[in-house]
Every structure is written in structure tokens, then in C-alpha cells.
Amino acid sequence: MAQTMTLKEEESKLKSQFERIDDIAFYNQKKVLEAFKNNRVTTQYFSGTTGYGYDDIGRDNLARIYAEIFGGEKAIVSPILTCGTHAITTVLFGLLRKDDLMLSISGIPYDTIQSSLFGKDNSSLEDYGVKYKQIDLKEDGSFDSEAIFKAVKKLKPKMVYVQRSKGYSSRKAISPYDMKPIFEEVKRLSKDTFIVVDNCYGEFVDRVEPTNVGADVIVGSLIKNAGGGFAPTGGYIVGSEKALDLIATRYTNPSLKLELGSYEMGYRMFYQGIFMAPHTVAQSLKGSLLVGQIMEDKGYMVIPDNKTIPQDIVKSVVFNNEEDLVKFVQTVQTVSPVDGHVLPMPWDMPGYKDKVIMAAGTFVGGSSIELSCDGPIRPPYIAYIQGGLTYEHVKMFAEKLIDLY
């Protein structure tokens, strides 16, 4: 199979899916442009501030743009949020109090979030008396609606939490359209429950976001989809005014909230990043499908399979052995524009229980909207590949992939 396979043949199988991706990108680009125009963006908003950052118009207008794009009433968009995990943790500690219940309805959250939830004497939610329960997804990756509604009705949780992307699991990402009926019923059963969605890797993949279907808060990283490959750091939080006012007290201080926070470098890269994001996400999705098509045709399991409409930018490839996983990740590094000459090896990465191998020859450190790949060294040895600022860049990796296995 590998000898007769060609890149053109693999691409030709994806024509209709590529057209769908282009349609979504065009829709989302219109939405983003409208938000820029409605908020009267000019170059004065690109300038930075120092010190406290009172009346930082660039920061505040960027937040208004995010709120409009993602369908929220208010937003925090800031380089002070160091990563997605930091942004999510800020939300959790902003909304939850002693004896409150957090109910995760998409199974156990991502590895790095777990230390925010569990443990003694580590300033976790558990340490502060917050309770946690989870309901796993069904085997087919869908919500266990019966169990969710029963738990919400009985327990009245302060928060229902959903992780949109798969993390280091073997499930599919979750569509906002599948979230909608769940969120509607949760609110009917417990109107004061906050619905929070970790939206990492999912922004601009479809026409709607979780906030458009009932989520009170969505959270993400600016070095993933929303930053468009331009934002050098940061995270965002978008949602209802009620939720954001509470989160703001944790983000800074109960009396300061969103009134301060400077960034001397300025905000041009953040504005340019969110403007470019719909196109960049489309490039990444096309690359993901091409890689998935090649690996599927070589007999490997890919998640989601290539006939399924993607709900995030991550494609998982199941190898069932360490050697092939490592080889795949190392090959990604060989086509990297930065550190393309180095050989990544598994290592003890902070926040993870198992060794992780990571290819990340990126302009922005740790960026996963740029072509990158990683995987924990544990069965079933899955590689998680994502990103690609340009489809052509991912295509270069795909070209090598044809002869790799």
C-alpha cells in the first residue's frame, strides 16, 4: 500500500471536506471582521501600557471583541493568563466555594487540570473544601444524558464542566451542537448552575461556540486556535457578566477586578491573531485530515476517523507500541522551522504522570496552532498531532509520512 500511495491521491479523497472547512472559515472570518468594525479598531489600540494599566484601551477593546465573537457578555483576554490551564484554574477558583460541587460530565479533565482539583496541602479545590464528581462519556463518546440529568436534579451542582477536546484520551472531541440539549436541560433542572467549557483546540472549528448553545463560560489559550499563530502568550475567558464578575475577583482582587493589567509590548499581535484565527484553524484542519487519511489508508486507527466531521484541530493516531509513536513524533520535528535539527525524546514533563514526547519546533514556545505533536508514553501509545499555520507545511510532513511506515 505504501509503495503505491501518492500525496495527490490522498488529497483527492478530501475535496468535499476541504470545501466544508473553507465555508466555515469564510463564515467565521465575517464574524470576526464584524466584531472589529463594531468595536472601531484603530492602531491606537495596539499600544501597550506599563504599571497598573488603568484605562488600558487596547486591553479593554480586545476583551469586547472576544466577547462579541464568542457570544458572551464580557471577556478577559490577557497575557497575564500564562496558559490554558492557568485560565481554567482561574475560572474554577473564581466560581467555586467551600462545599460547592463541581460536576464534570465529560469524564476526568486533562492531566494538568487534575492538580487544580485534587490533593492535600497543594492549594487544590479539594484543599479548599470543594467537592468533585464526574460522569464519564458513553463508549461512543456521547453524553450520558440520563446520568447527567439525574445527578443535576439531585445534587444541584454549582458547576457543570465540559472539556471539549479529547486531552490525552482516545475519545472524540465534543460538538457544541451535542452540548446544546444537555445544557438546556441542566439549566431547566438547576438554573443557578454555572456551565463551564474548556474550549481549547475547538475555536472556529465550527460556526458556533459553546457560549452560543448555553455555556455560561468558555476558556481557552491564546497559543492555540484563538491566537491565530500570532499571539505570543496568554489566555481568554468569555461568558456571562455574572460569571465574569466573580472570576475577575480571582483574576486580580475583589476590589480591582478588570480595572488593571498592563502589557508594555502592546496588543497588535493579539488583534492580528484573532483576526487570522479562522483561516489558520482551517489550514490546520485540512492538514489534520490529510495526515488522518494517510494513516487510515496504512491501516492505523485514527481518532476521529476521517469520515467524521472534526470538532477540534487534534488528530490522534493509535500505534499500540512505543517505537512507532516515537518515530512519528520525531518525524514531525524534522519538518519544523525552529529546532528542526534536534531529536525529541520522551521526558518527565511538569504536570504529567507519564513521560511525554513532544515535537514542537514552533515560533511561539509550546504553540499548538503551529504544527506540533505529542503523546504520553503509555498504552495504547497514541500520538496527538495538531496545528499548522499553513496547509503546505503539514503537507511536507505528510510527504514524509507516506514512506515512514
Characterization of the model:
This protein is α/β, with parallel strands linked by helices and 405 residues long. It has 2 domains: 7-26 and 277-401, Methioning gamme-lyase, C-terminal domain (Aspartate Aminotransferase, domain 1); 45-273, Aspartate Aminotransferase, domain 2. The chain has helices at 7-12, 15-38, 57-69, 84-95, 111-117, 145-155, 176-189, 241-251, 268-297, 322-334, 391-401, and strands spanning 74-78, 101-104, 131-134, 159-163, 194-198, 217-221, 235-239, 301-303, 315-318, 356-359, 372-376, 382-386. The strands form 2 sheets. Strands 1-7-6-5-4-2-3 form a 7-stranded mixed beta sheet. It has a 5-stranded antiparallel beta sheet with strand order 8-9-12-11-10, covered by helices on one side. 49% of the residues are buried.
Class from helix and strand fractions: alpha/beta
Order of helices and strands: HHHEHEHEHEHEEEHHEEHEEEH
Helix proportion: 25-40%
- What is the count of DSSP helices, taking H or I runs of 4+ residues? 11
Through-space gap between termini: 10 Å
Name the poorly predicted regions.
none
CATH class of the largest domain: Alpha Beta
CATH superfamily of the largest domain: Type I PLP-dependent aspartate aminotransferase-like (Major domain)
Mean pLDDT: 97
User: How does CATH name the architecture of the largest domain?
Assistant: 3-Layer(aba) Sandwich
Radius of gyration (CA) equals 21 Å
For the sheet with most strands, the description reads:
7 strands, mixed
In total, the number of domains comes to: 2
Instruction: Please tally the β strands and state the result.
Output: 12
CATH topology of the largest domain: Aspartate Aminotransferase, domain 2
Oligomer: single chain
Strand neighbour order, sheet with most strands: 1-7-6-5-4-2-3
Strand residue percentage: 5-15%
Apparent shape: globular
